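Would you kindly consider the sequence and fold I have copied below?
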Amino acid sequence: MICGKEFYKSIKESHSHILDLMSRNKDCALLTWNPEADTLEEGVPGLNDVTKGQVEWRAVILNDADTFGFDHINNQNPFDKVDAIPALYNFGETQIFELFDEYYNVKARLDKANSAKDKDVIKKLQETEKSIRESIENLIAESAAKIDEYRRRKKENHLKACENPLTRLAIWMMGAPMEEAPTVDKSWPEELLAEECPVDWNYYETVYKARLLPTEVEQFRAETEKYKAICDSFLTGSLLQKKPKEVIALSERLLKRSEDLFDQVKEPHEELEYDNFCDDNLYPLRMKYLLFDVEYDNKHRTSASNLGFVSFVYMLSANEIPDGCMRCERVYNGTVKINEQKARDFFTRYLRKLNATKKVLLNKLRHYQTITIDDELPKDEAIKIFETDAEIKVESHLTTEQSELLAKYKIGLSRDCPTEEEIHWKTQVDEIIKKFIRFLREPRRALKNAVKKDFRHQTVIEDERIFKLGEDGLEDIEFRIQEKEQQMVETVTNRLYRTREYTERIEKADGEVREQIARRMTKKKTVCIGLIVFFAYLLGFIPLFVGNMNNHKTLVISLIMTGICLGLMILVGLIFLLVVRYKHKKHFENFNKLMEGILSEIENGLKSFSKYLGHMCDFMRGVSVFNYLRKPTDLTPKILKKHLYDIQTRIDSVNGLFVSVMQVDDKSDEMPYNYDFTKLVDYAYEVPYDEIESVVEFITSENYVTVPIDYMVKVSMTREDLYD
């Protein structure tokens, strides 16, 4: 069983009986997984040692929320980590090839007509040939867009899949899904296999003449790209001394199925329509996939859901799945049926043993009690020392660098006056984008520096006055720990920045400015058009001058009116240029507003992390108070209190499995744990078992397994309907 460190920690704290069962089973091993590791040795330490010398072995890889996040386990298929696309598009080859048949038929007839020198027939056939060619070119343009999109998305998916921790671990263990480069028939034209092969007339004509289909060509190219991506990212062979007989990827899932989904799966489907997620995610061909639906409350599995999940994990790791129950490249959903009354009886005995031990420790503590009420710290002083909120500042150079990320503009009445706007804008934007990319490193650095400098030095309280807190003071700190834990959960901390989204928004704003610049006229063009309009308008007044040449008074009035009209025309032209300049200026301002908004978004993200780190620091300070009480530097009462705290934590954990607190009879004859409670040791407090065996129906009605816990009644499995 390979699981994340958080899952191991959670079952150690809440379901230690599962760990105890696994330790008793010599054929079962539980290993932790670091999904961020770059090698198998770092990712799953000890795997080579555990499997060394084994004749046969199998692995279950757990994908939970702590490993992959809630976004993935909330999908219908959590194993699909990339944007799935259909295996092949319809590239419209049927219609294109039919037109090619007609095209070559017409060309043949045209050759005959040229030989016969029949001009009427030649002209008619030439028009038909031209018409067919235009139709083919139009269809090829549509098909080219589809093929280019298909190639792009396939390449992106291969890169995404290589970053998927589950893909990396599976390939390291089982080997790559493609250990050899795909082979092609030697009769295929070489130009179709070129790395950069444009989809144009020559592409379709070559495919047509070779009696191939674009789908065949693109499928082969995609397979070649897949092999290249695997070779660039992995060793094609397994790094283990012996490959596993079987690898099952187990994932928890948060999914509420809609009625639309139920209606969809009721429809008849061909097996070929099943989701092709294995190929898209580069998973090894022999891996199997299993889901377990869970319920979460406030980012924690509900007690009932957690009990079923960890029990299912144990059953899956300790027992082989019967042959024929699971097919590769298909997804199955597992369920566990638990008898609640038997589970209560099972854990009631555990509680009785814990309570018996707690009672013994309380009796011992009374003999060693040395701290009196008079020794307790005053409440105000205790609050000041142990309950003051920490402040973790996460700051970057936002204010000092903000001006450098904004565009400066001098806009005239034309695009090359006072400066050449296109060159000026391109130079500015290139520099802004370069600085912005460099600037995006700052938030992560600011967070790292805050953790290194402020956070680390405020997470621990080591003060002798802790021993003077008394029961009420410790209870206040325990409530504060719970409060800070809740505040941590409620504090929204998104990603510090989203590079792709920012880049798209900046490119869009940049494109709008460039488009506006391209629309504006140059100074020369503006002056020429202005003079042309001016003289054309002036010519319209010549008849007025000619008609008033003999009357000087009327001529003067005509000249004045002409001057006024020309002045108004110039004013209107100037106003028009100013309006265009104002609209153009708005695009520059919109770009700066976008940059300011992005910077503000990043700054708010830093504030959220600052708030989150403050809550986490307060939480850890509270926990450190109880850790300090466990130190062996003090008297036995402090050590006894530590053991009492550990036992109470176990009791609370068991009570949390059920809606109401379980009522346990203190008069039971259950014996306490026989540990040396004068030593500062973290004891396991194993769940007491009767040496009995329970037969459970496992997967199929004809298959049974024997387990040492009887609250599990049945483990079943059904195939998920996941169709493209």
Q: What stands out?
A: The radius of gyration is 38 Å.
